[in-house]
Design brief:
Enolase-like, domain 1, TIM Barrel, 2 domains, four-stranded mixed sheet, 14 helices, 39% helix, binds magnesium ion
C-alpha cells in the first residue's frame, strides 16, 4: 500500500518554442510527484486535458503505477489510446514514479533495478545555433567536441521548413548540395572519432529520403533519423532496401505496440522513444526491454522539456541496452531556469542525481509564470 492520491494539477508554463505542460500528482500527506506531458502548438489543449484527469485518479493508491497505467489506457480505448492519450499517461506515470521515489527516499533508478552505470553518455543537439555556411557548422562542431561531446546531431536540410504541406514530400535539388557540404564540413573538422547523427524529421517521401541519405552516406553517418513520416512502416522498409545508412526512429511512436513492427521487421538500428509521449517511465522501460531482445540500443529523445531529459535519464541509468541520451543543448539554459537543482551536465555526460524520485523539482519562481489555458 502506498499513498492515496488527493489531487491532480496541470501547469502551462513558458518553454522554448512552445509552452510546456506539467502535471503534479498530489498525495493526502502533502507529498507530490511531477511529470511532463508532451505538447507543442497544442499546449493549451493538452494542459486542459491533463487538468481534468482527477476523477480517474483521486482516491487511488499512488503506488499502483502499473494498474493506473492500464486504468488510464483503457479509459480512452474507444478514442484510440496512442498519441495524445499516451502523452497524458506519460505525465501521470512519471509523476507517480517521482512520488513513489520520494515516499521511499530513493531515486527512480533504484526502483528500476539500480544503477547499471555511473553516468549517461550524451549526444548533443542544438549546438549549431546561428550557423549558416558549412564553415560555420564546422567551427561550431569543433567547439562542441572541444567541450567533451562525442556525438552531434543536426538537420542539415534546413531550407526545408517544418510545414504541414511538406509531410512526406520532396526536397529542392538546389538545396541538396548545401546540405551535403554542411555534413562534409563537420566530418572534416571533427575527424572520424565523432558520431554525426542526421535528423530528417520524418518529412520526406521515399525517393527523396533515399537520395538524400545516399548523398551524405560517404561522410559516415551514425544514423539517419526518421527518413520518412512515421505513419507507414512499409515506406521505411522501402527506404531500408535502397540505402545503406543506419536508421533511428521512435520519437513519434507510441507505446510498445508501435515499436513492435519496427523491431520485428528490422527497420531500425536504434530506437529513440520519447518518455513524455510514449507512455512514461514504465513504457520506456518496457520498450527498451523489448528492443534488448533484438539487440537494438535505446537512445531517449529530448526535444521537449526538462522532465523529458531527467525521466529518460533515470530510466536509462537502470537499462542495459542504453546508447546515448539526447540533450537539446540550446534548451539547457531554459531547463535550468525551470528546475531545481540545476542539471549536472559535464564533459559530454549527464550525471543523474541520487536525490529521491526524479531528483529535481519545478522552481517556485518558474511556477509563478503560469500561462492561462
Ligand atoms: Mg528527431
Amino acid at each position: 500500500m502506498g499513498l492515496k492520491i488527493s489531487g491532480v494539477t496541470a501547469y502551462h508554463l513558458p518553454g522554448t518554442r512552445y509552452p510546456w505542460v506539467f502535471v503534479r500528482i498530489e498525495a493526502e500527506n502533502g507529498m507530490y510527484g511531477i511529470g511532463q506531458v508532451s505538447s507543442g502548438p497544442n499546449s493549451p489543449v493538452v494542459a486542459a486535458a491533463a487538468s481534468r484527469l482527477g476523477p480517474l485518479l483521486v482516491g487511488e493508491d499512488a503506488s499502483r503505477i502499473e494498474y493506473l497505467w492500464y486504468k488510464l489506457y483503457t479509459s480512452f480505448s474507444s478514442l484510440g489510446s496512442l498519441g495524445f492519450v499516451s502523452a497524458l499517461i506519460s505525465g501521470v506515470d512519471i509523476a507517480l514514479w517521482d512520488l513513489r521515489g520520494k515516499e521511499l527516499g530513493l531515486p527512480v533508478y533504484e526502483l528500476l533495478g539500480g544503477a547499471y552505470r555511473e553516468k549517461l553518455l550524451l549526444y548533443s543537439n542544438g549546438w549549431f545555433s546561428g550557423c549558416v555556411t558549412p564553415d560555420d557548422f564546422g567551427r561550431a562542431a569543433k567547439r562542441t567536441v572541444d567541450e567533451g561531446h562525442t556525438a552531434l546531431k543536426l538537420d542539415p536540410f534546413k531550407q526545408h521548413k517544418h510545414d504541414f504541406q511538406k509531410h512526406g514530400a520532396g526536397y529542392d535539388a538546389a538545396d541538396e548540395a548545401h546540405a551535403a557540404e554542411i555534413v562534409r564540413a563537420i566530418r572534416e573538422t571533427v575527424g572520424q572519432g565523432v558520431e554525426i547523427l542526421i535528423d530528417a524529421h520524418g518529412r520526406f517521401d521515399v525517393p527523396t529520403a533515399v537520395r538524400l541519405a545516399n548523398l551524405i552516406a560517404p561522410y559516415r553517418i551514425g544514423w539517419f533519423e526518421e527518413p520518412v513520416p512515421p505513419e507507414n512502416p512499409d515506406a521505411l522498409e522501402q527506404f531500408r532496401q535502397r540505402s545503406p545508412v543506419p536508421v533511428c526512429v521512435g520519437e513519434r511512436l507510441y507505446t510498445r505496440w508501435q515499436f513492435r513492427p519496427i523491431l520485428e521487421k528490422k527497420l531500425a538500428e536504434y530506437i529513440m522513444p520519447d518518455v513524455i509521449r510514449t507512455g512514461g517511465i514504465s513504457e520506456l522501460r518496457r520498450i527498451a526491454t523489448m528492443a534488448e531482445a533484438f539487440f537494438v540500443p535505446v537512445s531517449p529523445h529530448d526535444a521537449t522539456g526538462p522532465i523529458t531529459l531527467v525521466a529518460g535519464a533515470q530510466t536509462m541509468m537502470a537499462t542495459a541496452n542504453f546508447y546515448r541520451l539526447e540533450i537539446a543543448y540550446s534548451e539547457l539554459e531554459q531547463y535550468n531556469r525551470a528546475m531545481t537543482p540545476a542539471f549536472d551536465v559535464r564533459g559530454g555526460y549527464f550525471h543523474v542525481s541520487d536525490r529521491p524520485g526524479l531528483g529535481h523539482d519545478l522552481r517556485e519562481d518558474y511556477l509563478a509564470q503560469a500561462i492561462p489555458f
